[in-house]
Design brief:
Blueprint (H helix, E strand, L loop, with lengths): L5 H33 L25 E6 L7 H13 L3 E7 L5 E4 L2 E4 L2 E2 H7 L6 E4 L11 H9 L6 E4 L3 H8 L6 E2 L9 H4 L4 E2 L5 E4 L2 E4 L5 H13 L1 H11 L19 H10 L4 E6 L6 H14 L2 E7 L5 E2 L5 E3 L2 E2 L8 E7 L5 H12 L3 E5 L12 H12 L2 H11 L17 H27 L1
Parallel strand pairs: 1-2, 1-6, 2-5, 6-7, 7-11, 8-9, 12-13, 12-17, 13-16, 17-18
Antiparallel strand pairs: 3-4, 4-15, 10-11, 14-15
Helix pairs in contact: 1-9, 1-14, 2-7, 2-8, 2-10, 4-5, 7-8, 9-14, 10-12, 10-13, 12-13
Amino acid sequence: MSTLRPGRRFRTALRLAGIAAAFAAPPLAAGAVHFSRIAPLTGYAPAPAFDAPDIDVPFDPGKRTAVVVMSNTGTELTDFLAPYEVLAATGAFNVLAVAPEARITPLGAGLDIVPHLSFAGYDARIGADPDVLVVPFINDWRGAANRPVVAWIKAHAGPGTTLLTICGGAVTLAETGLLDGRRATTYWDFFAWVPRAYPAVQWVQGQRFVDDGNIVSSAGIANGIPATLHVVEKILGKAVALETARKVGYAPVAQLADPRFTLGMSPLPAVLLANAFRFDKTEMGVVLHDGVGEIDLAAVLDTYPRSGTTLTRLVADTRRVVRSRHGLFLVPRWDFASAPRLDRVVVPGARGALDDAPLAAWARDRHGVGVTYLRGDLGAPLAADRFPFDLTLADLARGESAAVARWSARGLEYTPEDPAVLAGAGWPIGIVVWPMALGLLGVALGTLGVRAVRTRA
């Protein structure tokens, strides 16, 4: 039984609470300030001005048409790039990136794109409703700037159109009313609120994709790949879907027959510490080059920034339109001469994808680093032909920590078949030492402050 009087017990509790507050306040404040400074750099920062030249967009009237719709305010990049490559790899579609305006537009993580056509341009040139209409997650989907996106989707969802939503794209389709009374899924984090926001939709959890006739919806981000392959199978047949999976390097094709899945435990403390107390964020230069694979690019740009440890800077020899493997018009934010100081230089491809010698000289002489290639360097000793997200996650696990890599994988809703992909180091000691040091400093300063007040009294 305690011998302390009630008043003394209260003062002791108050003193302990003060010590706890003094310990917690400095790291929380420093972490919040630092997190707020880097968050905009991993999102949809407006694209720098760029006068895009007139670009010819080939169109074969003998093929089906697939439109991947996007917003000029920002579109989740893997949601956009992955289904685009899967559909293009079939060879059976004209695949078009269409937005309200055909101007330079952010995709996130510093990647900018010039859409193939504006909405008006599509209506003037193509006119017919697309055979496949892909709706990725759109930033600020309820904002005034994106009302034309919602209206255009609704107007072009014809009787012969297959609608495919990727990740949070389901909420944009829900805005049209076309999901009312239908089954759909979306990003795992959205299930906390979408049943209230869109109660007329039958929301389904625990599946990579949900097929409800002419509407197919995917769960988060990377699950858009099996969902798109499923659409390919519906339209072109199983053999074409499997061959397309082989072309893009996607091995777990059993998901097409059984889309059930579960997410692992969330290593949230790791990413909070990595975001808040890793003050030396890695500045990664990502080199755009003609012929870059869309999924290769997505794997680099969505894995590393999502971890909170890395800021990506899109660079090229000159600030020009770079054509991806299947004809997207990409624009770097920096040329080699104007690029900021970089800690890493990564090519989302293999050696020989561009002129390697000048690139190596620039990286060495200007930044003091070598050039790392996605296929051949990242994720080693994994084979270079592995699925690109395996390579980037393995590199993150070994270079940062296994917990940080698991956080990125969870955010991507991507589960590697090989557990070795996410095997890596423990937490870097620095991200633990910083908050401890700031907390102890807070206690010391608080103690000095109390003593100073008592001395004056």
